[in-house]
Specification:
Structural class: mainly alpha
Number of strands: 0
CATH topology of the largest domain: Tetracycline Repressor, domain 2
Radius of gyration: 19 Å
CATH superfamily of the largest domain: UbiA prenyltransferase
Largest sheet: none
Helix content: over 70%
Oligomer: single chain
Mean pLDDT: 86
Number of helices: 13
Distance between the termini: 55 Å
Shape: globular
Length: 293
């Protein structure tokens, strides 16, 4: 018990890819050429990785009895008794102390955002995850707080269109997660996650369509916004929209055809089409912005 590999799994490091949302501000503010600012953003990202791992431990501690009946979650270190509760709590304390220490090195704003993130997620684990619709908005708030940490937290003014697009993307991923859980657990789903008893496939499918549409529209409007054109000195960001559309459609395809999509951090690496779409979008975006300079 309490072996290093099991303790490492307890942190869920594969989920750290979600903290790439912290980097969006520096990307779209043309700030990657400023070493000091890049360092602060990377520190903010690190603080979120540490805080998020602590949140996962809290969730595992609370959900431990339920995870035992879950086909996949029963393999988690705490549910499988590979890590003791005492060790998990000790790791949790260390993670959060480190997270707030690193966050304080960036700014008080980052510390405040981290505190909100932790409090909201504790409330989610204790009760809010059982409140239909609100549960997905809580999941989405985590992504939005990451974006704010990488913008307001380091004194970068966030684009309103980008914030709206980020919100729609987060809601899309949240509803897709719930839809994937329905696929995975079928008739027994309400016994594993209470809130799933309030969701029907047609309801989630409609919400996925609405949020996916909003992602495409808001991102497209961002690329054509006069403020964006002025900031990046180019009207060519519109050419990155097809990557976004393809990525969204591919994610929906994987969700319904392969019964995947419940874990965005895993899905990115499972589907080479999705990975190519993301990397292609990033490379073309960087090239267009750098060329304009």
């Amino acid at each position: 018990m309490n072996r290093i590999p099991d303790l490492w799994r307890l942190l869920r490091p594969r989920q750290w890819v979600k903290n790439s949302f912290v980097l969006t501000g520096i990307l779209f503010a043309n700030a990657w050429r400023q070493p000091e600012l890049v360092e602060r953003v990377l520190l903010a990202t690190t603080s979120f990785c540490l805080a998020a791992s602590g949140v996962y431990i809290v969730n595992d501690l609370i959900d431990r009895p339920h995870d035992l009946n879950h086909p996949r979650k029963k393999q988690r270190p705490l549910a499988a008794n590979k890590v003791s509760v005492t060790a998990a709590v000790a790791v949790l304390i260390i993670l959060w102390l480190a997270a707030f220490t690193v966050g304080f090195m960036v700014s008080r704003a980052v510390v405040t955002i981290l505190l909100i993130y932790v409090v909201v997620n504790i409330a989610y684990s204790l009760h809010l995850k059982h409140v239909v619709i609100l549960d997905v908005f809580i999941i989405a708030s985590g992504f939005m707080l990451r974006i704010l940490a990488g913008t307001i937290g380091v004194a970068i003014a966030p684009s309103q269109w980008l914030l709206l697009c980020g919100l729609m993307m987060a809601l899309f991923l949240g509803f897709a997660k719930r839809r994937a859980e329905l696929y995975a657990l079928t008739e027994d789903s309400p016994t594993h996650r209470r809130v799933l008893g309030h969701y029907q496939p047609v309801l989630l499918d409609n919400m996925i369509v609405v949020t996916a549409t909003c992602v495409i529209i808001t991102y497209s409007l961002y690329t054509m916004s006069p403020a964006t054109i002025q900031a990046h000195h180019t009207e060519s960001l519109i050419y990155t929209v097809p990557f976004v559309i393809y990525g969204i459609f591919r994610y929906i395809y994987s969700l319904h055809k392969k019964n995947e999509g419940g874990d965005p951090a895993l899905q990115i690496f499972r589907d080479p089409h999705l990975l190519v779409a993301i990397v292609g979008w990033l490379m073309v975006t960087l090239w267009l912005i750098a060329r304009a300079r």
